[in-house]
Design a protein that fits this description.
- The longest helix has 29 residues, at about 140-170.
- The chain starts with a helix and ends in a 5-residue tail after the last helix.
- The chain is an all-alpha fold and about 200 residues long.
- The protein has helices at about 1-20, 40-65, 70-95, 130-140, 140-170, 175-200.
- It is about 65% helix and about 0% strand.
- Helix 5 (about 140-170) runs antiparallel to helix 6 (about 175-200).
Length: about 200
């Protein structure tokens, strides 16, 4: 399990380094022939959802280490694997297209309503704030489970909305298919998490 965690965290560290280094050049000469434009839904979604997914992976690692509940740990493990793999696919497509993995544009500009981060760690709708992540780190057992399930439900709802937009607006079959699959998968998990919260005497 430690090796699996390291495999996911290494790409995450690379993304952090890219973000700290500032926006990369988006000049067209670097792009592959026929690649979607730098301002396209395909490229914008791949960048934004990669960041959105990474926080879901982070939260799932946190709860996995703070509870022994088999059901919650199984959900966390599924989210870690699914979203880390999807993130890898999106970053791979950006690489193949010759598009930078980070951008100076505001998140979700490709959707027509750019989001301005508030400086609290929540870079896009649905993402947890630094304070919420700290609270999850401090929680244990049932408290950690409920906090995680609530945060992840909010995270999934916003992620599914972004994926719907990409499924409708993307020009590449790869992004349309991936985004549509994300909507189905995250909606299913939202229903599962609602049941899990009710079983723990809470509500989403």
């Amino acid at each position: 399990m430690v090796m699996a965690g390291a495999a996911v965290l290494l790409p995450a560290l690379g993304l952090v380094a890219l973000m700290l280094a500032g926006p990369s050049s988006s000049a067209d000469p670097a792009a592959s022939p026929g690649a979607p434009s730098d301002t396209s839904a395909d490229v914008g979604f791949a960048r934004d959802m990669s960041i959105h997914h990474q926080q879901a992976v982070e939260m799932s690692f946190l709860v996995r280490d703070r509870t022994t509940d088999a059901e919650v740990r199984r959900l966390a493990y599924d989210i870690i694997n699914t979203q880390a793999n999807q993130r890898g696919m999106m970053l791979g497509w950006l690489e193949m297209w010759g598009r930078p993995k980070s951008s100076g544009a505001r998140p979700m500009a490709w959707m027509g309503h750019a989001f301005t981060p508030r400086g609290d760690g929540s870079l896009m709708p649905g993402m947890a704030t630094d304070t919420e992540l700290d609270a999850l780190r401090e929680a244990k057992d049932r408290a950690a489970e409920v906090r995680y399930l609530k945060l992840m439900t909010t995270h999934h709802r916003a992620g599914a909305e972004m994926a719907r937009a990409a499924a409708d607006a993307a020009g590449t079959e790869e992004i349309r298919n991936l985004a549509a699959g994300m909507v189905r998968g995250q909606q299913s998990e939202i229903g599962l998490m609602a049941d899990m919260l009710r079983a723990r005497g809470s509500a989403a």
